[in-house]
Amino acid sequence: MRIDILCKPESESRGERVLHNVREALDQMGVKAEVHLYLDRRKMIDHRVYVAPALVVDDEVRIAGRVPAVNEIKSFIVERPRYVQRFSKVA
Known about the structure:
Layout: E1 2-7, H1 12-29, E2 34-39, H2 41-46, E3 54-57, E4 60-64, H3 70-90
Parallel strand pairs: 1-2
Antiparallel strand pairs: 1-3, 3-4
């Protein structure tokens, strides 16, 4: 699983809060994932995100424009295996 946090350089503190919440959610659930914090406008535009911060889980923008709570991040992590399982049955 790969989790990216996209943020503008001037709003780094909000990006750090999202990073802290993501790490806390991963620790509580015992899940290992790649977590990256990008302070780059170009990366935001590539994902078509225009408000910061944004949370991207496996190349899918899940939240943009606000700092998600830990429980909300946990719900995104729990959903992910279900999607992988569903697509493997189709293919």
